[in-house]
Amino acid sequence: MDGGKPIKESRDVDVPLAAAHFWYYAGWADKLDYAFPGRVARPLGVAAQIIPWNFPLLMLAWKIAPALAGGNTVVLKPATTTPLSALLFADVCRQADLPAGVVNIVPGPGSIGMHLVTHPGVDKVAFTGSTEIGKKIARGVAGTDKGLTLELGGKAANIVFDDAPLDQAVEGIVNGIYFNQGEVCCAGSRLLVQESIQDALIEKLKDRLSTIRVGDPLDKNTDVGAINSKQQLEKITELVAAGTAEGAEIYQPACDLPDRGYFFRPTLFTGVAQSHRIAREEIFGPVLSVLTFRTPEEAIEKANNTPYGLSAGVWTDKGSRILSMVRRLKAGVVWANTFNRFDPTSPFGGYKESGFGREGGMHGLHAYVRLEDR
Questions:
Q1: Judging by beta carbons within 10 Å of its beta carbon (0-12, 13-18, 19+), is residue 97 exposed, middle or buried?
Q2: What is the pLDDT of residues 21-55, one digit of tens each?
Q3: If residue 147 lies in a helix (H) or strand (E), which one and from where to where?
């Protein structure tokens, strides 16, 4: 709620995935004796969890579900602009007769998050958000014995080879960058296209962008909803202006934007160089930068030429090429012939300035327990 995302994405993605995470970790709650062979899993204690505004319910599920399955208590701070989903979840906990004090929701300004991070009664800190704030949290935890999981920013490369099914790739590209208005940490914001198919792919992509509907998030036909806040809209606008100033060619489909609210047209940049800001900085908006490559080696070099390492995508008809690319891409998650697919049994997380630790699967459970010898 109160995030600006299209209601059909909340209905078809956020709510089902959140429920799936609770379902998955509920299955482990009474099986911890078997989860880690030869070891005894003990709860860490109090987990302080800080979540972002782009997925206020799903990020809550990613963090609270494994924490409770491991026997911990939780103090969760939702983002300043999107507290309503977490507050509604608190009422769900009350209806479920969860014991008082097990799950605690503390809305408010960002400073509250740092108070939780540095509180001496906290045993585990988990944060999803910007790299800048993640570094600040890491400094706050340094010198203590608190556990720490950080899932931070990204600048994912979506790599399309000349043997890829182009129509399928176009749908994956659109889903990779325009889903949730591009306000996704693992968004495929850099499109790397093999030179021989650049013109054909860009033409198909422009045709597809012309069909995207921007508008009221509560309209079930809307594809791209509202930007979360005025501050975020200003950041997107500033970086798009920088892309144009640095010489990239901009394309935006013709569409009417609502008179009220914060909206931005789906944007496509071609002629982008690696030195451009739109190719280096996380925009966190519906903006795609297109770069080209000739060989797999060049694609790898360009894809890894970023301080981030959260996700990537590879589109090709050759299974051997997929495996070769996956081994060399410095990203925590690599999708093959798809993008933005999640499952509660599969770990998710990054490298470099995209953070460390994993959420989801057994890796996510491990982050909330202390293992002792039997």
A1: exposed
A2: 999 999 999 999 999 999 999 999 999 999 999 99
A3: strand 147-151
* pTM score of the predicted model: 0.94
| H/E element, 190 | strand 190-194
**How far is it, in rounded angstroms, from Cα 136 to Cα 313?**
30
Catalytic residue annotation: 151, 185
Integer Cα distance of 180 and 183 in angstroms: 6
Place of tokens 């800080």: 50
Domain boundaries, the chain: 7-152+354-373, 157-336
The CATH architecture of the domain made up of 7-152+354-373 is 3-Layer(aba) Sandwich (3.40)
If you search the block for the tokens 């992509």, which residue do you land on?
205
Handedness of CA 276, 282, 285, 286 (dihedral sign): positive
Dump pLDDT digits (tens) for 247-259: 999 999 998 899 9
DSSP 248: P
Cα R_g (the chain), whole angstroms:
21
The domain 157-336: what is its CATH number? 3.40.309.10
